[in-house]
Amino acid sequence: MKRELIFITVIGKDQKGIIARISNAVFAHNINIEDLNQKIMGGYFVMTMLADITDSPITISQLKKELSTIEDEMHLKIQVQNENIFRTMHRV
Amino acid sequence: MEYSLEEVMETVRMTLYHNFDIRTVTLGINLKDCINSDLDIFKDNVYDRVSGYGRRLIHEAHELEDKYGIPIINKRISVTPVSLIIEACEEVDAPLEIAKTLDKASRDVGIDFIGGFGALVQKGMTRADKRLIDSLPEVFSSTERVCGFLNVASTVSGMNMDAIIMLGKTLKEIADRTENGIGCARFVIFANAPEDNPFMAGAFHGVGEPDFSLNIGISGPGVVRSVVEQNRDCDLTELSGVIKRTAFKITRAGELIGRELAKNLSVPFGIVDISLASTTKVGDSVAGIVEMMGVEKMGAPGSTAALSLLVDAVKKGGAMASGNVGGLSGTFIPVSEDSCMNEAVRVGALSIEKLEAFTAVCSVGLDMIAIPGDAKAQTISAIIADELAIGVINNKTTGVRLIPVPGKKAGDYVNFGGLLGETYVMNISNFSSNDFILRGGRMPAPVTSMRN
User: Fold this and answer.
1) pTM of the prediction?
2) I need a surface site. Which of B200, B243, B375, B441 has the fewest CB within 10 A?
3) Given this model, what pLDDT does residue B408 score?
4) Domains within chain A, CATH numbers bracketed
5) Which residues on A lie below 8 Å from B66 (Cβ)?
6) Residues of chain B contacting A59 with CB distance shorter than 8 Å
7) CA B219 → CA A9, B225, B379, distances in Å?
8) pLDDT at B179 over 80
């Protein structure tokens, strides 16, 4: 079966618990974290998480809804996108 | 496969802050097999075909928006030129009835614009073509979503001046019957119209196309403007490279989503149109890119050169990214739909003559320009002829979307609403070309058409 990979990206003010809360939400739906990067860019906390959603019972849009609670509570911008879009744009 | 954080964030930032999107997905639909000499059966066939595929298009496009997190701004349909499919109907009101059917089918499934209510008359008109042209004022005043076109010139056939004479009057009639002349915004007059253009108002599904064809328009100018902004000090060679790389990325994204959408709809993928299309959003403006390059206001000396660099760089990046570049693939310079263009008109930096000069280096012509409501029909015809001559001689597509706004004079403000934007009425020449235009006939195809 073809693996379905997604990128979860977060932009916002640095604060305690961002990675913890997102990791927990992802873990709860059987989504495996494959890679994680974080950095402070231009004063903002930025994180990219590559995750495997193949075995998860939920869809990208359901995951987005779930993460939107964290987005609102922690005043972050969270994007969830299929990995293909990054491969298409950044790899020839 | 590994990605740097910067690469991932580049795409994310483009989406969040610079209007990175898919500007349009347009499903071309053949309606020739819906033809029936019984108008009621014919209408039912058209309704079922358009509404059925329209519903699926919207559903599948939403699914992909969720999957990739990239908005697909417009989901539209183009159909076989309607003049062709009404040939067998005797009813005088057949064009209007088909237009209303297309309008209803689109409204019922949430398609905002449907293109193809038009004809190809560059060399002459059939009886059905004439009936369709006669119906235009009634069609645009009694429908909301139907878009139309008329191809009245081509490099291989020359210019049908008799049709151009008719259109001067027709545009005024459409304008008189719709608020602020807005019906004219849904009607494009072309030279060398492409058969697979996904952008409204001029989209239609040409006779060389298969039963279905999914065509897409890449992201708009906002993304390009932001990279120009980030490269304020580089020279124009480097700037061209920067734009080229961005165009490559957004074209690749467009092709990915277009191909997947076509596959999910079980229809052939058609083309990627790499035209940059402005919206009324601040920053999402082609004129904004030119101004960001260092031209004080669009229309100032240097704007044509800047625009030519932009269009060329986008083409180079786009052509490397997709093997199926097609449609118009120039750059749109609509006035009312582009906030910086409007401001340039307001302050007097931009004239119709300069807009005409722009179209020598880009698509797609004199677009969404408000002119005084008392403009003479022959003057409108002459403006159309000038613009189309550029297309005919240079073997490229040019188009005209003029709006003679009833009761308004040069400098007056007019709001068309929503996607169509707002603008100021532009001044047109008071000198007459009546005697030239009223000669009529067909301007012969230019010598450049003899290529065999």
Assistant:
1) 0.94
2) B441
3) 97
4) 5-90 (3.30.70.260)
5) 59-61, 64
6) 66
7) 21, 12, 36
8) yes
The DSSP code sequence of B48-105 is HHHHHHHHHHHHHHHHHHHHH---EEEEEEEES-HHHHTTT---TTHHHHHHHHHHHH
> Residue A25's pLDDT is what?
94
**Alpha-carbon span B377 to B165, nearest angstrom:** 8
- pLDDT of B364 reads 80
Tell me the pLDDT tens digit for each residue of B379-424.
999 999 999 999 999 999 999 999 999 999 999 999 998 889 999 9
pLDDT of residue B61: 97
Across the interface, of B8, B67, B250, the residue whose CB is closest to A86 is: B8
Question: Is A86's CB within 8 Å of B7's CB?
Answer: yes
Residue B385: which residues within 8 A CB-CB, separation 6 or more?
A: B159, B161, B164, B437
- Subunit contact A50:B16, Cβ cutoff 8 A: no
* Pick from B1, B66, B253: CB nearest A85: B253
Q: What φ, ψ does residue B251 adopt, rounded to 5°?
A: -70, -40
DSSP conformation class of B444: P
Predicted confidence at residue B362, as pLDDT, reads 86
Is the Cβ pair B12, A11 closer than 8 Å? yes
Mean pLDDT of chain B: 95
Question: What would the pLDDT profile of A39-67 be if each residue is shown by its tens digit?
Answer: 998 888 999 999 999 999 999 999 999 99
Taking contacts as CB-CB distances below 8 angstroms, the residues of chain A near B9 are 9, 11, 41, 46, 48
Predicted pLDDT at B1 = 56
Is residue B439 predicted with pLDDT exceeding 60? yes
Q: Is B28 helix (H, G, I), strand (E, B) or coil?
A: strand
- Taken in order of first residue, the domains within chain B and their CATH numbers are 22-191 (3.20.70.20), 219-440 (3.20.70.20)
Of all residues in chain B, what percent are helix, strand and coil, respectively (each to 5)?
50, 15, 35
Rounded CA gap, B85 and B207, in Å?
11
Proportion of chain A above pLDDT 90, given as a percent = 89
Closest CA to B382 of B337, B325, B439, B329: B439
Q: What DSSP assignment string belongs to B292-329?
A: HHT-SSTTSTTHHHHHHHHHHHHHHHHHHH-TTB-SS-
Please answer yes or no on whether A59 and B66 come within 8 Å at the CB atom. yes
Q: Do B11 and A60 touch (CB under 8 A)?
A: no
Beta partners for B24?
A: B74, B217
Check B69 against A79: CB less than 8 A apart. Answer: yes
- Token couple for A61: 């849009």
State the count of interchain CB pairs (< 8 A) between A and B.
Answer: 71
Q: Considering only alpha carbons, which residue of chain B is nearest residue A48? A: B5
